[in-house]
């Protein structure tokens, strides 16, 4: 009996009452040990839960396709949205909606996505979980300046005249970053930009050399990822492949991406965020929120505590925690008889080898868990809440599923065997590297003692080689690695945890923990990053470059 089945069976023997009792000390421990973030209260009356129907983001159609490529276009724009009923909120959006449109692409085909920036600020798009060449990855100083911005090369030349030695790089050299460059007048937050900075439009090529997985795209601008995502710059990108399509998993409107975020609202309906600097020239948040910003409204696909009518059938829920810093423990309430309500079929990097039953899923920022829920385990008319056992007050509720009584067909099921997952071999590791994620008094959040500096690389892994990377922490940090997923092999020298199965690209480190993972980078040489995905930590310098060669 493997350890995860053991957990599942233990929970079902104990029953729901015992489970709740178990959850409380666990949450208390986390709070005591510094569950990241501080609550930012909204300044308007919050709506009742379970009133708004669950929205599902529209799927973006390619503008054209040829041999092996599908071409997409997205305009980043300000939009007035009704997020809280009767309240208008100005959002920064991909294509006018929050979440942005969902891209559904096919493994083996390239998605070529042209972004046009009509926002009032520079932006950077990163496809999180994408196996992406460096120049399309969304390196945080590869700015996309708003349409109509002054030419950065001209501005760099004048900065060069003022004595910035690196400025010539902006004319198009391969140097990825120019630290310390003079800011562009009238353009907040422009202290850093690379030679890949462009005005108006940028085309990202995602070659699609990766297996089916739930990815997401979001803003990644140097120092301003937190406020950018908070204001709405996030969307799903689902990669499909033949292997997954051949499985009898739920599909169509029973395959639901669920983007879970927390937000706070000001009295005028705008998103409230404790930026350190109202002019947005300096990154980061005010002192009290340095450990992360927690909102008091839980949104699923951009709607507050929504509800959904479900058939008594299997549903695939693609859970994404797109919150800036909030950790959730997601459970269904009531639990179905027999437990294992959430049958995990996939992780960040796609299908698991075999399903894993869970009574709850602890999900850190940027993680994805693909789960199947069989609502036929509930009586017709049951109201099944998705709850957050780590939240208190309004943050303890997420959404509600109302189980219908109508008779339906349901051919979907979860096969015992989902995929063949290559296990990386620890003995094959050619190097071991340590990355310490810690707060340092004067420097804010650091990796190996230093705040982020674009272009300073902490590691040079060789293409195709397995390495052992050890992440250690002071408090909670969800650590994310770009380019390729990894496999968790140990936590504090012991077995991985119940949520570490499969290919991961983000792993939550608990206070004072060391997590060992095996990485292997393939196909694309260049500069990539690893960083904390608590976006306030990220903006306050908890990032590092590595260079794949
Ligand atoms: Cu989702 Cu480097 O980020
Ligand atoms: Cu962190």
Question: Can you describe this structure?
Answer:
The protein is mostly beta strands and 549 residues long. It has 3 domains: 3-36 and 421-548, Sandwich (Immunoglobulin-like); 64-245, Immunoglobulin-like (Sandwich), CATH 2.60.40.420; 255-403, Immunoglobulin-like, CATH 2.60.40. It has 5 helices and 34 strands. The strands form 8 sheets. The chain has a 7-stranded mixed β-sheet. Strands 2, 3, 4, 6 and 10 form a 5-stranded mixed β-sheet that branches. Strands 17-25-24-19-22 form a 5-stranded mixed β-sheet, with no helix packed on it. A hairpin with a 2-residue loop joins strand 20 (342-347) and strand 21. It is globular. The model is unreliable at 1-33 and 160-189 (pLDDT under 50). It binds CU-O-CU linkage and copper (II) ion.
In short:
The chain has 549 residues and is mostly beta strands.
CATH topology of the largest domain: Immunoglobulin-like
Report the end-to-end length measured between terminal Cα atoms: 41 Å
* CATH class descriptor of the largest domain: Mainly Beta
Structural class: mainly beta
Architecture of the largest domain in CATH? Sandwich
What's the CATH H-level homologous superfamily of the largest domain? Cupredoxins -  blue copper proteins
Strand order of the largest sheet: 16-15-13-18-23-20-21
Point out poorly predicted stretches.
1-33, 160-189
Helix share bin: 10-25%
